[in-house]
Amino acid sequence: MPKHFNYRKLAFETYDPVCAHCGFGIPAVLEVAHIDCDRSNNDISNLVILCPNCHKMHDLDIISTETILQMRDRPKVVDWKKRMKNAGEKAALTRKRSMAAKKAAETRRRNMAAEGTVGDAFEKLSLAEAKSNSKVG
Ligand SMILES: [Zn+2]
Questions:
Q1: Would the pLDDT of 1 be above 60?
Q2: Global confidence as pTM
Q3: Distances in Å between the alpha carbon of 6 and those of 2, 26, 66, 73, 78?
């Protein structure tokens, strides 16, 4: 291999242009690491794209070579199910709460309208709503 072999170009042509370990993806910041730390070994299997953090952590063996290889070679598929597992439940709870709040506001409005003049009721209502809003959250 020539002395100034462009291993960076080779790595970017072969692998996704993201840090193999953490997924960071600004190409200008990404580095190409020699997995065995031998800078003359430019075989594609010895190269991995890493961000400066992960590169340093691999050099210090905080991230193992085994992990780097595994992360480099596994498919980069995002599984949103892991994050969204109870999104439906949360949305249902929010709906339930806002329905209950609406119902309570309507009841207050009705009660106050029955008590006094409309103008008076609106004044009381905005006070009551301000109070109940400050309790929320
Ligand atoms: Zn990284």
A1: no
A2: 0.60
A3: 9, 19, 25, 21, 31
